[in-house]
Amino acid sequence: MFLNKRLFLLAIYAITAIALKAQYQFIHYDIDNGLPHNMSESILRDFKGFLWVGTYGGVSKFDGVSFQNYTETDKRSGVPGNTVFKLIEDSERNLWVATNKGIALYNRDLDCFKTIDKTNNICIWDIAEFKKGLLIAISNYEIFLFNTKTLKLEEFFNTKNGLPFGLLSRCITDNKGLLWIGTINDGLFSFNLKTKAYNQYTLEKSTLNSSSSYSIKALCFDSRGKLWIGTTNAGIYVLDTSKRETSYLKSEASNDNTIGSTMVYSIFRDIKGGMWVGCQNGYLNKFDPKTGNFTRIKPDLYNENYLQSNSISNIYEDTDGNIWFGTYNHGIYCLNKQLSGFVKHTMDKYNSNSLRNNFVRGFVEYNGSIIIAMDGGGLQLFDPRSQTFSNFHGNSFTSNHFMDISLQGDELWCPTWG
After folding, report:
1. What are the strands of the beta sheet with 293-297, ordered from one edge?
2. Backbone phi, psi, residue 175, to 5°
3. Which residues contact 277 (CB under 8 A, 6 or more apart)?
4. Among residues 40, 114, 245, 366, which is most buried (max CB within 10 A)?
5. Which of 25, 60, 28, 22 is nearest to 41 (CA)?
6. Are 260 and 213 within 8 A, CB to CB?
7. pTM of the model
8. CA 193, CA 238: separation in Å to the nearest integer?
9. Which regions of the chain are under pLDDT 50?
10. How far apart are CA 134 and CA 128, in angstroms?
């Protein structure tokens, strides 16, 4: 059977417009849709259009229809650890993953990952491209500098050879060639890789936290070049790196114009310069630079198709302008302001043109229709034009329990059980 291989997104959830100063509409994906875990730390869309999700259960690749998972237990996948902290695609379109057991590089030809030497069984918290051909990685007490072509370790820094701090947590590079490093107990540092010079930046104590140390979880430059510093115990600081001046963005529980919590886990700048902040038990927050105020986007617990989590772990914008949000308990969400709504399809025993089974495991497009694979319902064709379902007439199958459906080259593959 020969099929045209194209990505297609079939919306399952019916989402209605909800007014919150602007309309926000979400698509929701979790373990029921194929994610390996509902907790995620990183989201990325690669140059081929695939969406990658780093979860606490491995790496997942989404083609707009179904998820393909790469886990530590599946030795063929090559993923060194199931807890994935960061995904990046460098300027040469290499896909890198940082895990609790090392760094891995994705091989697109073999569809698997390869662990980088010298990082085996090392918890890598963050990775960033320093410049073309050089990759920065940080663990608890080390900074690694890798050549992305040879995959060789070029430089290595720790407390034994001059690194003045430990318990590293986050890193980011600026346009001046400086590496900025957030720590668990020692605040913020800048590091000049050429001169090997370090500078420490002191954050003023917030009125909400008397602790002398701040655990830094997020780093992001805004459109003015100022560095936003998200902490897990003191909210957000904004550093003017040229003037070495910091300001503090407060959080007040009773003031919805402030961030929802001092436990900041993610900060992201969208293509229009808007700043998004994800908090633990403090909602998704959008910053308005004109007013200096935040808008809290709170969960609607009475609408299963809306945002259901108040703990946002990571934020990412794809090339189509969709903004993706990872959570610590509810999978991932996609925000698309252009959507006018979705149509929900479920099994209706009184309607012969309805979905045959609610346990949907996968989709592929076939001659303008969608082939739907179901666990216990076999295969069905869906016609998007007439919005109707019909039987799929193909070769006979020994089971109606389909676990997935995919295209391998021009062939249709359908794993079954029973």
Report:
1. 264-269, 275-279, 284-288, 293-297
2. -80, 0
3. 230, 236, 259, 264, 266, 267, 268, 284, 285, 286, 287, 294
4. 40
5. 60
6. no
7. 0.74
8. 24
9. 1-22, 207-208, 210, 340-343
10. 9
